[in-house]
Amino acid sequence: MYGIVNKAIEDLVKANFGDEKWEIILEKSGVEHDFFISNEAYDDDVTFKLAVAVSEVMDMTVSQVLIAFGEWWVIKTTKEKYPGLMESGGQNLKEFLTNLPLFHNRVMLIYPKLTPPEFKVSDINEKSINLHYFSKREGLQEFVRGLIQGLGIMFSTKTTIELLQTRNEGDSHEIFKVSW
After folding, report:
1. Residues 101, 83: Cα–Cα separation, whole Å
2. CB 3.0 to 4.6 Å from 36: which of 7, 19, 94, 146, for a disulfide?
């Protein structure tokens, strides 16, 4: 993952719990980076070590950490650092989710070494959509749930997210039913 991801975890912790907690988390994680360079690629293991350390230090489950991080990623990181990119995704939650399959094409212009997930949509209705999530990375479905929740917050739209299928149960990919 790119350094911007790890930097965003650092920013989330510092903004909500302070610099001191971040230092404890960094030490507990065993990650030996004093700072992260946004456009530098880091091993995925670094991100997972940070998430596990946050969960242990803050007495949260890893799922709770990933959800909180997903929300933060949308509301703070991408909205503040890439407002034009986020605005190009759509005028409302339904439009953004419908356009999501093309979103990472634009992101790859900024981060050419990115191995992005793939999204597809189905069952598009007036009040819901099924979002299919395909990724080579495992263990990030709760991060995606957080991203969806963050989009709901960004668009001031109350959302309900139901996991219809998951790789954890032998399926080929995750499907989230997003309702508003």
Report:
1. 18
2. 7
